[in-house]
Give the backbone structure.
Amino acid sequence: MNQKQRVIELYDIRKSYGNVKAVDGISIEVYKGEVLGIIGANGAGKTTTLEMMMGLRKPDSGSVRVLGMDITKQTNEIKQKIGIQLQQTALYDRIKVKEALELFSSYYSKTRDINEIIETLGLRPYLNKYVKNLSGGWQQRTSLALALINDPEIIFIDEPTTGLDPQARLELWGCINKFRAEGKTIILTTHYMDEAQRHCDRIGIIKQGKLVSIDQPKNLIATLGVHDASMEDVYLKYAVGN
Amino acid sequence: MQAILNHTKMELKLFFREIIALMFTFVVPAVSFIVFALMFNGSNYGGLDYFQAYIPSMIGIIIFTTSFFSMGLQIVIDREKGVYKRLKGTPINESVIFTATIVKGFFAIFVGAIEILLIAKFAFSAELTSHLFDFIVALTFCSMTFFALGFIVCSVAKRMQTALGIALIAMYPMMFLSGATIPIETLPGVLQNLSVIVPLTYVVNVLRDGWNGTLFTGDALVDIAVLAVILVVAAFIGMKSFKWSD
């Protein structure tokens, strides 16, 4: 972290759907080993920004470099080295947990030990169950397991804890923190400010397709100049206020 | 290569878990075939006996149900769930997914066809074709044409309900106005005219030509030409408008 190595460089990316500017000129640098949280209201452009970093969407303009490579040119090399978890579980209706793990591991040239992932995420009792029959928390864990299967350098997680009960959220964060301890770079979006404050090294705030601010949680809170303020207050001021 | 194999194996495995797909591929055509055989065995259809006419017909119906339900509808369901978007985040190529889908389609059609042949042979002691090569050529060509139509369905339909609606509405003319079940000659004039615009009509004709050894004669020319045009146009539209993810 000392000599900050940039693993993602977004430069002035823009994306419109019809007349709606979903992302309107965002530039972000993400450093190796950090947990970067992206917050903002629904429709602010968080997911679109994330999906452009993942290579799922092409920006209308601007450039995306991941691990030093141009995402439009070295797409496959990049995809070998990143792991993604989408908002929806996004798996076949009738696939079992174990089958999904095996299927996804067959896509990559380098893989992490599946058994280790299963143990870490506690998926062993669910291996022969259909993913769609699992509770939200276990579906999220399955998605996370798939995101880790290639032992990625960067892990993207879109709203990992939305809809989970407090215990499931806590456990999921336990898993995420374990991978952070291994030096992985983690980029996530969330609506939970307490989580963002506790777990993120830096937080980027997106409002109406623009990056309003990006900094460490404590610095963001300090800008409010109010004693006892929290990320909730930061959110209300920057992501909602004018 | 390994990725194509693994992905295709998974598609096939999932296919055998889809009750609707299995019903339309292995149950509906087989049951119709048996019922019609019990009713019409011994009838004559423009020089063909029941089996010469209806073995190709039922296999034609399998081509339709596979293309519209097992492929078209299933792609829309998977796309709506975000499956293809998730796959886009992996190194796997869209051409691998496409190949796996097509292999699944051919697999369903050929297995469904073999089922009809086994029923015909063992339940009704029917004589099978002596033009197997012609029939396989006809079957492959007709399947490709309908796969292209299936991809148009999933280009038009964004939601599962829409795709299901299209497939179910298409099912009636495909089954009843194509000659696959009711002989076209016995339909009232208005409906006979309508049969001309039902793509499965040409499939039924070409499959019968393959089965009865007239595929490479002038008789089959018009039907083959119509299907070829449908294939080219549908594939073109499909390539322009089909998207694996939004």
